[in-house]
Specification:
eight-stranded mixed sheet; alpha/beta; 33% helix; 14 helices; binds zinc ion; 424 residues; four-stranded antiparallel sheet
């Protein structure tokens, strides 16, 4: 590769505005230098704006109708059984296989289990078994020596924020140590690492970011300061031929209400369960017209497609219009809950289109849409204080920008083609 190397740092869930603010306020001085000398753009996430879909689109350059990942969950064919798609379900090649330069790929969400590749791969969220998360396997003893963790233990936040923050920092430092080792120990042309603790931190402690008097405010800033030190090290180690990209997969904002879409569908007569005491998807009743999978993917209960499907194809259009009326009428304190409603055909295309939802909703500012069936409440608010946003991820491009064109308002699908163009 004559063009130099590719270095990619992912900051899961970090919105454009937060990176700008922390850079301007002196929390992230190295990132500020990169912004001043690079191209810094707001970027559109996938729809829905969840990491599994967005990172799958980032690494393949394809939409879910082509790569096949529509969410963290999916249904097994012709059933209501939930399954968790993984890297084996991804139907498009990640850019590192297309470029085929030696690559070090660490902690990219939805790349578990790892496969043989030209380089090193440690998979990210959701990774279950360490032995299936590391390629080559010979690296496992070294990772154990560094106390490398596949993810922060988010369940700790429900016990105590201090325990969660301590685990978050241990996870962060072990992963940085691992990256140092991999950077120095291997010849590589592509190095990609995704910080995912940022997403967990913002879910639990967005309020600590906004409120300077919050007792965890400085813990929040410290996490970003540590990440900024890594940016500084990369600036020292990269050369002028290298392309250095920093990006997020979706944005974040304050969460004011959780909205349970299946509870709404149930209340309005679109969804019923065979046994009300067991409100689970596998228990969907034959009066069901529509149901939702996380976060707000709407599926019509079509005859022939699902075991207790009732909807005739000719009636689909009318039911979708009825659902649109319902979702658009939803207001809390005079504010519309749903910002955008997309039909499947507006956002997905490709051979796997039929596997996708019939409709996807994006919530208005503050409203976190949920697909759980386990509550009867339509509106709730639990432990989380931050939620994902669709329209304000970011892309920051620094270094050798010959050969690449960056759209004014890029989308997650634009990244892989840009990387491939750089190496051609
Ligand atoms: Zn998240």
């Amino acid at each position: 590769m004559q063009s130099g190397r590719i270095i990619i740092v992912g900051l899961d869930g970090v919105p454009f505005g937060l990176l700008r603010e922390l850079s301007d306020k002196g929390v992230m001085p190295n990132t500020k230098r990169i912004i001043s000398n690079g191209i810094f753009r707001m970027m559109q996430s996938s729809i829905p704006e969840v990491s599994s879909v967005a990172w799958s689109s980032i690494i393949t350059g394809k939409n879910p109708g082509e790569h096949g990942i529509f969410g963290f969950t999916d249904l097994s064919s012709n059933s209501y059984r939930l399954r968790f798609p993984n890297f084996n379900d991804l139907q498009s090649e990640p850019f590192w296989n297309v470029i085929n330069g030696k690559s070090v790929i660490v902690n990219v969400p939805s790349t578990y289990p790892v496969k043989d590749m030209n380089g090193v791969h440690i998979s990210g969220f959701v990774s279950i078994d360490l032995s299936k998360s590391v390629f080559p396997k010979s690296l496992i003893p070294i990772l154990k020596e560094f106390d490398y963790r596949l993810d922060v233990d988010s369940t700790l936040a429900h016990q105590s924020m201090d325990l969660f923050l301590s685990d978050l920092e241990k996870t962060l430092h072990a992963s940085i140590q691992t990256c140092h080792y991999l950077w120095d120990s291997f010849e590589w042309q592509i190095f990609m690492y995704v910080f995912t603790g940022t997403d967990r931190l913002m879910h639990f402690l967005w309020d600590a970011y906004e409120d300077r008097d919050h007792r965890c405010h400085f813990d929040f800033l410290t996490h970003f300061q540590t990440i900024d030190e890594v940016m500084g090290e990369i600036l020292l180690r990269a050369n002028e031929k290298d392309l250095f990209i920093i990006l997020s997969d979706h944005g974040f904002e304050k969460l004011t209400h959780e909205i349970y879409i299946n509870s709404l569908l149930r209340k309005e007569g679109f969804l019923n369960f065979e046994n009300d005491k067991e409100p689970e998807l596998f228990n969907i009743g034959s009066k069901t017209k529509a149901f939702a999978l996380d976060p707000a993917r709407i599926y019509l209960n079509v005859k022939g497609k699902y075991p207790r499907g009732t909807i005739e194809l000719r009636d689909k259009g009318q039911i979708l219009r009825d659902l649109e009326d319902l979702f658009l009428s939803l207001e809390i304190n005079g504010r519309k809950v749903i910002k955008s409603i997309y039909r499947g055909e507006e956002i997905y295309s490709g051979p796997l289109f039929d596997k996708g939802p019939d409709m996807v909703l994006v919530g208005s500012s503050g409203f976190d849409l949920k697909g759980s069936t386990k509550t009867e409440k339509v509106i709730d608010k639990r432990i989380f204080s931050g939620k994902h946003t669709q329209d304000d991820a970011f892309l920051l491009v620094y270094g050798n920008r010959e050969k690449i064109n960056i759209p004014d308002y890029p989308m997650v699908c634009d990244i892989a083609p840009l990387l491939i163009a750089f190496t051609n």
